[in-house]
Amino acid sequence: MKSVAIKGVKEFEIKEIEEPKAQEGRVLIEVEKAGICGSDIHYWDMGNPVGLVMGHEFCGKVLNNGGRSDLKVGDRVTALPISPCGHCLACNTGNPQYCKETWTYATGLSLENPGALTSKISVRSDMVMKVPDNTKDEEMAMVEPTAVGLHAIHLANIKVGEKVLVVGGGIIGLVSAMFAKKEGASYVAISETNKARGQKAVDLGVADAFLDATDEHFQDKVMEITKMGFDVVVDCCGTSPAVTSAIMATRPGGRVILVGVSMTPITIPTVAAVMSEIILQGAIAYTKEEFQTCIDLIANKQIDVMKFVSKIISLDEVQDAYVELTSGTSDSIKILVDPKKN
Ligand SMILES: NC(=O)c1ccc[n+]([C@@H]2O[C@H](COP(=O)([O-])OP(=O)(O)OC[C@H]3O[C@@H](n4cnc5c(N)ncnc54)[C@H](O)[C@@H]3O)[C@@H](O)[C@H]2O)c1
Ligand SMILES: [Zn+2]
Ligand SMILES: [Zn+2]
Question: Is residue 239 in contact with ligand 1, taking CB distance under 6 Å?
């Protein structure tokens, strides 16, 4: 079957791969929609591992239930891409997201388990979630990134009236801003180097203001708005300038939630964090409960994730989409892939 696989640095190839077979303990799924994630961009940037078929955000139909008696052929499902061991401290305390094994065999992030940039995938049956009939495939392919934002905002523990800055206006930043508002933040700003994306965050109604991260007076603007700095800053970018700006924009005693990922170590101003006793909190993925909550919030129309979907493309258009998403000027947010589209 046709797939999109990493070939080299910033380069995909369209590749024939073997179809996964029905197997006990794994659900065979026909992919309807898959999302392109900012994390996938890091792998594409590095060109590594060669042969990786990405796509850890998806919705599809059950082809074989692999022994999950509550699922039948044709049921619509999504899944957590993670692969927790099930018996370590993290797993036993309801935190499979930081189980040491969870990413080793993750769907769409490991060579062993190809992701959804193809027509059929095989997923660990305990990670598969049935989705309500009144939802669209596009919406259910958005559950995974939405759950990342929900988890980050749960960890941020925002109190009603707090002021929040989100650094980076990609999908993770936008859903984080959306949930910060839902948690009672009185003011949510988004900082961006890409002006089109920053403005879009305001236009979509998830942020009260866009702060230009390239503005040399950025820090002065932050202090003008907040007096002492933001109560909470959520970094959804992960680069050194981004995390530095996050720390500098936080009030003394405030919290920085680190969601953005850098594949290599970065430099940050620890002195500023130390002198102001800033709390740095990492946030990775989501719990199963948070994943289910996002399915419910979308199905119950309590949140609208379709406004973040910029377009739906074919497998042949994936390479161009990555080029667009890394241009630094495009206002596209989430690009979904439909493997059936020509
Ligand atoms: N922790 C997790 O569980 C988790 C899950 C998913 C994604 N991520 C990571 O979160 C980050 C965001 O994901 P995404 O899909 O939204 O990615 P994205 O690439 O679409 O968004 C990142 C945004 O940051 C902006 N940016 C770059 N430098 C900036 C700066 N100095 N200040 C402000 N903005 C800046 C970029 O213009 C871009 O719009 C990525 O690093 C991704 O790997 C983490
Ligand atoms: Zn993702
Ligand atoms: Zn574990």
Answer: yes
Q: What is the mean pLDDT of residues 269-282?
A: 97
The CATH code belonging to domain 147-282 is 3.40.50.720
- Which residues touch 321 (CB under 8 Å, ≥6 apart)? 36, 313, 332, 335, 337
Cβ atoms of residues 121 and 29 within 8 Å: yes
| pLDDT average, residue stretch 282-310 | 98
Q: Which fold has domain 2-142+305-337?
A: Quinone Oxidoreductase; Chain A, domain 1 (3.90.180)
Pairing of strands 163-167, 187-192: parallel
**Residue identifier of the C-alpha nearest atom 24 of ligand 1:** 168
Q: Is the CB of 238 under 6 A from ligand 1?
A: yes
